[in-house]
Amino acid sequence: MDEAAELFDLELRLLLDAVYLRYHYDFRGYALSSLRRRVRHAMARFECARVSDLQHRIIHEPAFFAEAIQYFTVQVSEMFRDPAYFRALREEVVPVLTTYPSIKVWVAGCSSGEEVWSLAILLAEEGLLERSMIYATDINPDALAKAERGTYRTERVAQFSRNYVAAGGRGSLSDYYTSVYGNAAFDRRLTRQVVFADHSLATDSVFSEVHLVSCRNVLIYFNRALQDRAVGLFSDALVRKGFLGLGSKESLQFGAHAEKFEPFASLQRIYQRKGL
Amino acid sequence: MTGNDLPHQFGAVVIGASAGGVQALRVLLASLPRGFKPPVFIVQHISSDRPSTLPELFGNVCALPVLEAEDKQPIRSGTVVFAPPDYHLLVESRETLALSIDEPVKFSRPSIDVLFESAAAVFDEELLAILLTGASSDGSEGMALVRRAGGKAWVQCPSEAVASTMPESALALAGADAVLRLQDMCDRLQGGLK
Predict the structure, then answer these.
(1) Run of H or E including A182
(2) Which site in A39, A244, B167, B170 is 20 to 30 Å from A190, CA atoms measured?
């Protein structure tokens, strides 16, 4: 490795340590390949020549850190991204969930909430929302605030609608939002049953027993060890025969907890927790 | 050619292609001989709305196994891995690949720049980067980073490319170690093995 690249990686490690020690955000188990890109973006955006310049400001200016953290964490998703996943939830998982008197769902790493609202709509259409509780968690306070607001730019909604239809939606997505100043504001009644909460898959523990964990395109940003920690939490949180839904290119096959789950809808990456 | 330039001695090969790329890749992948050691990672721009058929498309013309990447997939020598539609493909380490859904780069996800940049950071001078036909400027910055890290850059001869923007843009920004026609790339890829 050439010296510049070596020093960049060294400074990156120091930065992650500093962020952890100063703010208790733990990015040390994040996949390096994406972190390098994101930190380079942050450096360009904030005109820092070196990672250590970025580190200096992060350590000494909490307000600056609040801005910089967006570069570490923000993932933009779509409502009903991968419609086949939501169709499988509707057609194969919902019939099982219906058998529970009350249903708890954990959307882990919910970012700006597109998937939370999608699930709430799906559960409402299946008549389950009233007896469901959805925990929507993320480490990024700005993203959580956005998720809770549930307003998305109008130009994104056409894609959301196409996904909704392909996912087997029973009506029209426009039944669920009103257009306000270039935004689609989703019906707040959908999230009466949602708790938005700060939770870290890297440092926090299980907070409730749940029947379904949906954690999609979050684990791709973690290294193997952190993935194992996160999937361990899911496995502990899930009831026997509970469901775990992952992103379309994520799987348990390379991880430490593979034997605790069995494929349920394998093409859609939905797993079922084995009975004890 | 020095011994160091024999492609099968590289640590990894990365390939980027856009418009016209499927035909070009057919030629290139068909030429890879059994026994080709480096892992091969490919970004071919493709519509994100359909499931990818790239592995099926190339599986029967290529002597090596052709796969679509899964997250944290172990890197295996002599295996061709495509970026899945709507994900960036990155080299995480010498052992592992990674994916991301970070924003599209130059309107593309997967992005050639993202693959090349991440591969350069891991494989340095042991990397061979090949940029083929395309109507985009994706890949230019990645190519510059590959060369800065000491890796080798081959660019398809713009006059031969179905769409010349991508090779031209890379040559303007990053230059290349060789500007080659497809057939010459094939010959070089087989160097020392056939």
Answers:
(1) none
(2) A244
CA distance A69 to A48: 15
- Looking at CA atoms only, how far is residue A167 from chain B in angstroms? 13
Residue pair B73/B97 in contact by the 8 Å Cβ criterion: yes
ipTM of the assembly? Answer: 0.92
Catalytic residue selected from B8, B31, B45, B108: B45
Q: Check CB contact under 8 Å for B102 and A249.
A: no
pTM: 0.93
**Alpha carbon of residue B151 to chain centroid:** 13
Contact flag A37-B114 (C-beta cutoff 8 Å): yes
Is B86 annotated in the active site? no
Strands A151-153 and A183-186, by their bridges, are: antiparallel
- Indicate yes or no: CB of B90 within 8 angstroms of CB of A34: yes
Among candidates A33, A223, A251 on the partner chain, residue whose Cβ is nearest the Cβ of B91: A33
Q: What is the pLDDT along chain A (276 residues), one digit of tens a residue?
A: 678 888 999 999 999 999 999 999 999 999 999 999 999 999 999 999 999 999 999 999 999 999 999 888 877 789 999 999 999 999 999 999 999 999 999 999 999 999 999 999 999 999 999 999 999 999 999 999 999 999 999 999 999 999 999 999 999 999 999 999 999 999 999 999 999 999 999 999 999 999 999 999 999 999 999 999 999 999 999 999 999 999 999 999 889 999 999 999 999 999 999 986
**Cβ contacts of B84 on chain A, cutoff 8 Å:** 248-249
